[in-house]
Design brief:
- The protein has 306 residues and is of the alpha+beta class.
- The protein folds into 3 domains: 168 residues, Jelly Rolls (Sandwich), CATH 2.60.120.10; 50 residues, Arc Repressor Mutant, subunit A, CATH 1.10.10; 49 residues, Arc Repressor Mutant, subunit A.
- The chain contains 10 helices and 10 strands.
- Helix 2 packs antiparallel against helix 3.
- The protein starts with 16 loop residues before the first strand and ends with a helix.
- The C terminus is likely disordered.
Length: 306
């Protein structure tokens, strides 16, 4: 097999205007690209990664062939196509289109297959699909796109969860070979819950990752995601955010007025404005309003004891 084409090299074969790019912000596990294309007829070489395409705007007729007859489908807003890796094909469309590409590494799909489905990686494979009859894929691509455009606290955790969800969905719906899903495991042991909660508390000031949390609890990433909500009542990234905010409230309640930018750093927020935005959303008041209320209430509590 000739050298496989990486996401950044795809424009050599499919020329278009770049509108979105996750590479400059250092995303791991997946790559997101956005393009605007004129009507084209292109030979797509063997790619290194699986490519998921979400269409925007008006409808177009999308056609594909790989050494045989053409297959054509109408695509448009919210429709997805799937291109496999390691196989060349020819694609053409009859009018300008705007798209979002998600490039998923084969190693990620294999990792999830081994953890969740207990299948040899040699069994994992995907097929091209011009029009995927699927309500889930467009939502997942939109979630990745929103994360790139707006971001937020716990971005690494959130993207890892999205990658796992995407991989499981692709394997269930589009794998060449059938897969056997592992029965859902039970709840965490008490020691796992305690160790995980303590690990999060001890590391709130830095960017926590799902694989680190899973390793601390002695489970796979997929196992952590399955069990976490049952134990903590929310997803991992939401739990981490909640703990950051609770620490911020504790620090704001202290008699010594620590600068807000220092509290933001100690709690793992990217900056002071990041803390203020999430604090106000969670508690319907700014950190300074909360601190002022604590100061006002303190003498009243002292008077009640006298």
């Amino acid at each position: 097999m000739s050298q496989l084409v990486a996401p950044d090299e795809v424009p050599r074969w499919i020329p278009g205007q770049l509108t979105l790019d996750s590479v400059p912000v250092g995303w791991e596990q997946v790559t997101l690209k956005g393009y605007q294309y004129t009507s084209l007829d292109v030979e797509i070489p063997s790619m290194r990664d699986y490519m998921l395409v979400r269409y925007k705007g008006d409808d177009a007729v999308m056609s594909r062939r790989a050494g045989g007859a053409w297959t054509s489908e109408r695509v448009g807003q919210g429709v997805c196509s799937l291109l496999t890796r390691g196989e060349s094909s020819q694609w053409k469309w009859d009018r300008p289109i705007e798209v979002t590409h998600i490039y998923l590494a084969h190693t990620e799909l294999c990792r999830v297959a081994e953890e969740v489905f207990e299948r040899s990686v040699s069994d994992v494979g995907m097929e091209d699909c011009v029009r995927a009859k699927d309500d889930v894929l467009p939502v997942l691509v939109s979630a990745f796109e929103s994360e790139l455009q707006s971001g937020g606290l716990g971005g690494g955790l959130y993207r890892s969860a999205l990658v796992n969800q995407l991989c499981v969905h692709l394997l269930r719906r589009y794998a060449k070979a059938g897969v056997r899903e592992v029965p859902l495991a039970g709840r965490m042991a008490d020691w796992q819950r305690r160790r995980l909660a303590q690990y999060v508390e001890d590391n709130l000031d830095r960017n926590l990752k799902l694989d680190e949390m899973a390793r601390e609890a002695g489970v796979s990433v997929s196992g952590l995601i399955r069990k976490f909500h049952a134990e903590f009542g929310c997803a991992p990234h939401a739990y981490v955010l909640r703990q950051r905010l609770e620490r911020a409230r504790r620090l704001l309640s202290r008699p010594v007025a620590t600068p807000l930018k220092c509290i933001a750093m100690d709690c793992g927020f990217s900056d002071q404005s990041h803390l203020v935005r999430h604090f106000k959303r969670a508690f319907q008041q700014t950190p300074m309003e909360f601190r002022s209320a604590v100061i006002v209430a303190a003498p009243r509590e002292t008077d009640s004891l006298s």
